[in-house]
Amino acid sequence: MTSSVQPSDATPETGENTTTDPAVEITALLRRSQDAWNSGDGAAYGACFTPDATDVTFVGTIYYGADEIGRAHQALFDSFLKGTHLHMEVEEARLLTPDSAVVVTRGEVAKKPPARLGKRATYTLVRRPDDGWHIAAVQKTKHNRLMEAVSFRLQPRTAPAQRPAPASP
To answer: Helix, strand, or coil here: 127?
Structure first.
């Protein structure tokens, strides 16, 4: 995780000292979702999401809620995505509030380690007092390097002014 996700020593409501580290907890959530994907476990994958989550897939399908996300992914794991692994690196993670964060990842779904991580995902994460961090929303997009390079060359002002340093998961 990047340095923008900092450990919290006190809960905002009580000021009580805690040992929870959002960076560790967020990393654990992303690893849980990755492990569920890698083992083809739709129920475990769905359990990483909030009951009212939104998952916008790479192909544009929108799934709503942890149950539907888990059910649909189990069908995918049993067919099109059978034997695949989710390869993921965190590019940026930042807390918006003590209980919400945005995480941007690079990744790829493949049976073997890919040469390049060609997809991006933006996660909105929330921490619920009763059961920790969960994915409230995720949007997955193909990173089109060629179109990006053409855009930057033809209109240099479209290039991002700064890019965050890569973060380790």
So the answer is: strand
Name the nearest CA neighbour of 126 among 36, 59, 42, 66.
66
CB 80 within 8 A of CB 107: no
Nearest alpha carbon to residue 142 among 114, 168, 161, 165: 114
Whether 168 contacts 90, CB under 8 Å: yes
Task: Provide mean pLDDT across the span 28-43.
Answer: 97
87-130 pLDDT, tens digit each: 999 999 999 999 999 999 999 999 999 999 999 999 999 999 88
In this model, does residue 7 exceed pLDDT 60?
Answer: no
Kindly state the helix (H) or strand (E) to which residue 147 belongs, with its residue range: helix 145-154
pTM: 0.79
**Three-class SS of residue 152?**
helix
- The answer for residues whose C-beta is within 8 angstroms of residue 129's C-beta and 6 or more apart is none
The secondary element (H helix, E strand) that includes residue 100 is strand 100-110
CB 140 within 8 A of CB 119: yes
